[in-house]
Amino acid sequence: MATARSALVVDDERDIRELLVLTLGRMGLRVDTAADLASARAHLAQSRYDLCLTDMRLPDGSGQELIEHIAQRYAETPVAMITAFGNVEAAVDALKAGAFDFVTKPVDLSVLRRLVQHALDLNQQRKAAPAGARLLGESQRMQQLRQTIGRVARSQAPVYISGESGVGKELVARLIHEQGSRAAGPFVPVNCGAIPSELMESELFGHKKGSFTGAHADKEGLFQTANGGTLFLDEVAELPLHMQVKLLRVIQEKSVRPVGAQAELPVDVRILSATHKNLAKLVEDGKFRQDLYYRINVIELAVPPLRQRREDIPQIAEAVLARLAGNGGTVPALSEEAEAALSAYPFPGNVRELENILERAVALCDGQTIEVADLYLPQVDQLIGQEADMPLRPVAAAPSPALPPGLADATALPEAIEQMERETIQKALEANRYNKTRTAAALGITFRALRYKLKKLGME
After folding, report:
1. What backbone torsions phi and psi does residue 220 show, to the nearest 5 degrees?
2. What is the pTM of this model?
3. Which of 9, 80, 265, 308: CA 20 to 30 A from 405?
4. Per-residue confidence at 327, pLDDT binned at 50, 70, 90?
5. Cβ(266)–Cβ(255) under 8 Å?
6. How far is CA 55 from the centre of its chain?
7. DSSP 192
8. Which residues, listed in sequence order, are joined to residue 273 by a DSSP beta bridge?
9. How far apart are CA 257 and CA 159, in angstroms?
């Protein structure tokens, strides 16, 4: 016989405790109650709970203290805060401290039941979606990123995913969704920069028939489409200011009003957002609302660029080539020189650029080995000190680098870069007593890439 799942309710108001015990009991939970912080800590020390609900204000402390206590000692127990209506600051603080979600007084029982169901589903969903199943790389940065994804997936807090174009922000958002309690619900990605400003309200919130020219039927918005799941607002910095106001209200009230509708509709959606721009700088410049910034940026998750985890490039490249080969196909291999060249290249377009480079190389290479020339790396002779007699074949779409002041002659640039590389490598070699393994680590490149550079720069 399966053990009944349990919950701990912490509130100094007897009526609230009785209401929650009745509601949770009807959902099949065994419920313990506590009227203060000390009693709650005693219960937690004696029993394991699948969920904890705590009031914000307690006679001997605060719900915030209890949330922090649970986060430190009972990390597998989701805890939700019960706050006074309109106390947004307390709710945000609770989410930052590790709360799973929050519910406001007077308690809406339908909202409470959804919150409880999400919490109960959480462990099962985490088992069904192992961490980092499609996020490649064993560098320390990527291991930390996967661990952080696992932690934030347990929460319902809004997450802001920052990072350059091409680093995989949508993939991170999908993993947060798949490892959380909403995995069975829809994941709806929205590129805010791709929706015309005049259509954005209708696209996000829906509209009623006849509400404007061309509205021939009722239309459900993307918030309603994502109901019960996750809405991923990519390039959120592109939202015009008037839409930022409306989005803030939706997040706070958890309801939307379709264009032309008289009433608001409740929505149960977790918000994830991302942009490659510096959102904090846009707030300073008055181009993004500060109040919205703090609501979507309860938890910030930074995705590192590929150049900061160069040791992951060979593994990612191998996976990309295997995918391009398809089932049963022959996987082309990178030559040692080609792999070193990739490891040395800065990848301004990150993982997306690596995928494009390899896809082109597979199409253009002769035989089953990809050589450096097949990669067509932009300005490859300048970036890794290639010999002058090898023809330069830049990608047409890649912009040419700007010349520093005083370098009017473009032919001087490769020599200047080679000299800078040579001096940097020489200093690193001396600092590491000519240990090439430690030198490569200090330079942030692979041992193979260092060996390639030493050969090309005539430093062996």
Report:
1. -80, 135
2. 0.63
3. 308
4. low
5. yes
6. 30
7. G
8. 160, 233
9. 24
